[in-house]
Batch of 2 targets.
Target 1
Amino acid sequence: MKLTHEIRDPIHTFIKLSSEERKVLDSSQFQRLRYIHQLALTYLVYPGATHNRFEHSLGVMELASRVYDVVTDPENIHNEIKDKFPEVNDSVKRNYWKEVIRMAALCHDLGHIPFSHAAEKELMEEGCSHETFTANIIDELEEIWQEMTPPLRTDDIKKLAVGPKELPDLTFSDWESILTEIITGDSFGVDRIDYLLRDSYHAGVAYGNFDHFRLIDTLRILPKEYADTEEPALGIEIGGIHTAESLLLARYYMFTQVYMHRVRRIYDIHLKDFMKSWLGKDKITDDLDFHLNLTDNKILVVMREALNNEDKPGHKDAKRILERNHFKVLYSPNPGDMEINIDPNTAIYEAAKEEFGKENVRYDSYHPTGGTYDFPVLLNNGEVESSVNISDALNNIPVVKVDFVFINSDFKKDADKWLEANKEAILKEDDI
Amino acid sequence: MLNIQEKKALTVALIRKMQDAGSWTGETHIQKLTYFLEEFFNIDLNYDFILYKHGPFSFDLRDELGALRADDFIVMEPRRPFGASFKPSKRADLLENKYNDLIREYNGELNFVVDKLANKSVKELEKVATALYVRNTEGITDNFKIAKKIVELKPHVSLEDAKSAAEELEQYDNETENSLI
């Protein structure tokens, strides 16, 4: 039996995995990810963006492996926290956790519903999310974990793949928190590193690129005594600060240019409307058999059927998507509007709904989740300081946000005139 | 339950009072003071807290701070030697003025948590917030049992320190029991 398998990848050249790991790759649960687009309907704006969660998950595994090797190298562990992580000096434990983090990274997206994140909250039953589905699917793969050498604990893989937010009943040790951060961390999570590089490559938008080789080489687990805490965190050597800046700037540009592009946003909304119509009164539950048969391909087939049959649910939304006749931007707040109203987007949306009818107006507001770019930096003199005290560039990266009111294109001209005549009064009246 | 804008207004008011009291006003401080507003005073902010970073931690609140920055109601500034500090922006006046009555309604609770907690160290906050977490989630009321549970959950906290934290919480109970808060 071949012990090492290589898969060609446009971002990481070769991704290697063992025969035991290959069993996960070959499982139906993982193969399903071939049919989940990474960026939903973004390909309607950037035609190249047709890549899927399958290749991204492989990329995240590869990067998690590389980061793990660097940050757990005993020579790279900061003296002040060496005692906290006995796993680093025990080769058996170190190898065990390397396998856990690889499998967690590989499986971290197994629970995505069709078209990835788009509309997840409104389509799934309360208490369900793609993270809870991921945890359930990792449970389902228990037999594979048990057959690995050494056998892996399912809970360990779940913790690292899903993180503490969705697993409130499990306690995370400092070690597990750091490993979770390697996959999903706000600043240097490999999920983020891979999707920026990969989305940028496929969309043909060069802004998402940065020197991830240098970044990974300088990542370190560091103490945060400057912040009066005994909990260590994932940080960086001072030599890597510029590449860290370029990663976070890349994120800013990718959000503004790709993820929050107005046309991409409205197609997400049309897609959500279609899926809601298709589901009817039902919502996506934690029924795994149903979930595993639900892919982008399935949705595209029913959408095509709905396009050709007026009686099918979602007919209008299918027409908007497949005939590319999307709603247009009516309004997006400017700084002047923000000075006179605390929530101008909602004020205009409510007024437009009244004027043109609920069915002809759509509301959108989104900002990325996560915290600040505050991470420890190891200085040349051995001291550790907060990144925000070191990098002006990091402190000045704007917080991305989009607010849009969209209008049915049939009403666009009338709506523009209406808005011009009434905007000031709406914004002032609403905020009395 | 408070609506989205009301939650934002109360969070901004809290941050302003923390700044006025000279607090570092880092994320951990905002997290723990908000936890007290929600769990000690039962103000229905509807943030889910789990035991994670330095005690009770809410990912929803972390996202809300991001939203407040995105809306330009708060700004982040470096504060040596600690790290990121938050303070209300100029635009925050708009929000606070609109919800002035609401902020006044909760003035007592806001002042109490700021007075007791805003200038504590992160380590001190971790202990007392974890004591409240243990009391509320485990239903334990005996101080010694609370302390033992804190040590179990946070092994770096000594039993003596954990007991002090539980007693401090009891002191807060006594102070608020007969007050008008």
Note: The mean pLDDT of chain A is 93.
Target 2
Amino acid sequence: MSDDLDALRQETLIALDAAGDLRAWDAVRVATLGKSGRLTGLLKELGRAAPEERRIRGAALNRLRDELTLAIEARGRSLEAEALNARLASERVDVTLPVPTGGGGSIHPISRTIEEMVAIFGAMGFQLAEGPDIETDWHNFSALNTPSHHPARTDHDTFYLPTPEGEATRLLRTQTSPVQIRTMLNQAPPIRVIVPGRTYRADHDATHSPMFHQCEGLVVDRGITLGHLKGCVIEFLRAYFDQPTLPVRFRASYFPFTEPSMEIDIGWDRRSGEIGGGSDWLEVLGSGMVHPRVLANCGIDPREFTGFAFGMGIERLTMLKNGIPDLRSFYESDIRWLRHYGSSPLLPALLHEGL
Amino acid sequence: MKFTLSWLRDHLDTTATQAEILAALNRIGLEVEGVTDRGAALAPFRTARIVAADQHPNADRLRICRVDIGRDTGEGGIGPEGDDLVQVVCGAPNARAGISVIFAPPGSVIPATGATLKVGSIRGVESHGMLCSLRELGLGEEHDGIAELPDNTTPGQSYANFAGLDDPVIEIAITPNRGDALAIRGIARDLAAAGLGRLRPWLAQTVEGLFPSPVGWRIDYPEACPYVLGRTVRALRNGPSPDWLRERLVAIGLRPISALVDITNFFTFDLGRPLHVFDAGKLSGSELVICRGAGETLRALDGRDYIAGPEDCVIADDAGVQSFAGIMGGEATGVSETTTSVFIECALFDPIRVALAGRRHAINSDARQRFERGLDPALPVAALEAATRMILELCGGEASEVVVAGEPPAWQREARLRFERIAGLGGLEVAPDDAVASLEALGFAVRARDAASVLLDVPSWRNDIAMPSVLDAAPDLDPARRLGVDTVSVIEAECDLIEEVLRLRGLDAVPPVTLPPPGLITRGPVPLPSLTPRQARTAVARRMLAARGLAECVGFSFISRDAAEHFGAIPDSLRLLNPIAADLDQLRPTPLASLALAARRNAARGADAVGLCEIGPGFGEGGQLLIAAGLRTGQAPRRPGVGPEPASVWQAKADALAVLESLGVPMEALSVTADAPAHYHPGRSGTLRQGPKLVLARFGDLHPGVLKALGLDGAAAGFELFLDVVPDPKRRRRAAPDLPAFQPLTRDFAFLVALEVTADAVVRAARGAERTLITKVSLFDVYEGEKVPQGQKSLAIEVVLQPRERSLTDAEIEAVCARIVAAVGKATGGVLRG
């Protein structure tokens, strides 16, 4: 390589090395390879050289051009990387700073339990039915074979509302059963409904609340037997508590609106509260075959149709499943309690996702 | 209902263990509520006899007793003397040779002290147990020395057994239909029918009447009393009952009073047959009249005064009302220790009238409990004989002839059971012979039987079976759907019988069967949705509110009238007649009221910034509405770089809009007006409507006056959304989406408008200027201040133009912009800001 090319090479490499930022680097690039750059100038002069010299010098110039091009590009990339690093360093933030998460909302355990009940009974073909909280005494009592003198009425501490002269007595429903009546009046069998809802009784202590929730179930069809009632309730309880072998006991009992009637217990351990374990029994449901009078009161022929009904306390089942010790806490709306026992709106009760 | 096991055995001949009896009671519907076994703590104590009592060498007051505890090893040599006697050191002054005593071996726990007895050395002499006083056994206060049992008591017996204290007391719950099980005999009959033994026969022997009764009956109120018997017993002596009777009554929680009273209580429980005894010496005149009350005052046996009304059935003599029929007797004619002559009442009273009278006067008595469930109408004659006999046995005297008024009611009924219905209704296959045998054991009598069914006479005591049906059909029921009462009666009687057959086998015997899938033929096993679209919408609203950070609450539907008043109308028609507490007396107008009260409770616990929501009923004159309400209070948590963020009308509006959008309400159909009700801040609240009338929601800061009245400090903003009002989304197939290929362009405008012009008015005017090209108009800035003229503000909007066929020319864009300016100017008087 001739001296002048060697000098150009050396000087350019030194200059590149000295270029501390992209602007200086660009000046070196233009001074070397730009339109008026030194190397470009030498290449332009080549045409004036003798043919033999032109061939030798041309080859040397091309080599030098390739070498310097690579060197300039490499230096450029390195300077770009340095610049980026500097920028990134200057943009650093404290990522431990707090951000608004937007969460904190929750679904009340009672709503959650109702959702679970709807999911399980829904899989058995039940539909959700609803009715008003203010009822007539006919819907709440009389239609359900509980006339005014019936001893069972003394068990219900009923809240009454003023009733205009000549109208049916108004009260707050003591049970969700009046919705059974409304359903049977409005719909011909087959009927398969569940009725979760608010109920009211004039009772207030550690284990009673003047308002609480029940879930009623009603099935009316041809050929329905007490065996179906048992199957339905056992399958529900085992799904709800997620215990495929949960012990379930049936005891004969009495309700005015069913016959035969029975109370239903599940196995548990009284001391530990463990569901399904131990040797104690805990009552969780009342049920029975719909009384022929109740069917007849609603215009359904008891010679043709039979049915069963059951009712359960939603708070009670919620407390058992979730280990909630205090009934009154459900209505206290203590934000700490709601956050603790509430569930995520993004995890609704879906059988295919698991309850 | 309480009874002792031994009392039960009076009527039930059984080899069943206590555990078997308890299990059977639960199985057949007589739920066991508790068992008290007084004998359990006394199990270690035995009867014994002091054979020798020698002075202790080292203590004046102690004796060394050698006690026969009935243990015969046959080898001799358990005692220190090489015989079968036990050495006990005893300090009781009455410890002497020859008496029978109660012995506690080492290891016993002494009930009165809880101490465990050990073999010990007392002043150098070994003692292998203890001789006990009744007080140490927890059985009394006597402690003058050790208890002395009757002479010749055989040593080695269980003391509890010897004293009749090993008799467990069982308490069962009686359902309202089972009046017959309020008798120990009725319980025994059920257990016998369930296979636990044999019901012992019971026959009352007739007591010959020796003279005409000086007192007779007259019934003036036959609807309340169809039939009554009575008889006088004279020349008797009332006094304490014998021990066996006193012990039984004490065991079941009754206080023994005197033989005459105890006898009536005995029959109340033994046969479920309440009786009353008047002191014949205190009755005036020769006739007791059963009649309606007429405002008389009666001091009853509970010592309280009651006023007898015209619906009450009372028993009166010449001096006035002496008893509430079927409920409680009067103090004036009650028996006492000095009574020498009684008149026994044995009546049938109408159950409903007794129930209503008892409820009116708030008297709960064992008699009322039985009368209102219905007595055995065939029992009065025999019960009166049995009671007379017991009075003669315990009190002496002589009995009169029986006096009667009215007629025994016709109680005879029949019921038919078709055997296939046992499985058809009850789901259990029972052989016809077995079913009939069960029913016969309960007292039913077969009148006729064929292969398919059996016709039975119902026993007199089962007034829950085959009673005449009482229908109460829906008042507006289609006549074509009405059923005759006879039709229902037949089915009902059959259900009654099936229940009995199942009950005695236990319902656990019925095999569970999975419900067939509904509509199996048309749909297969896949069920229909459980929720209607409206119900599903409620679930979506709940999730949306929770997803926006609100915690769902469940509040009582009733709150205090004072609090309710701040949130809407509080009509008297929605005020409870019998509230359980003064602060729970009014049905709430809106769940927002409950949330405000909840926010205050949370603030009192230090949580003054909360986000709460509830989906529940609000009540008004027009009925009940399902309302989704939310409330945010206080300041959002502070964060670096962000100013204070108090709960505000904007969050409330955003919450309400988010729910409406999630329910499928078309956002462009909503209008917002500044006219929320009085519990909101009048200048910082609004109403969301669909169309001109339909109010879907209201939102805003709560009124400062309401906050003050409720004791809430700081910011609070909420909303109420009326879920019932939100129209169902249209269920039509969606049109193909509008996806123009050309790039949209945006233009910004700033208008100077009067201060009172709403942003909504400007946006709507701009939107309406050009229907095809303008796809979106949004407000992005509001400015009030020095840079605009006094009384005006600047509203800046962004308009999106969407070319459809081709790109727009500058001239076309200018034309649209001019139309926008013109439309806004026309609608609001606004001009482009220079």
Note: The longest strand of chain A covers residues 211-221.
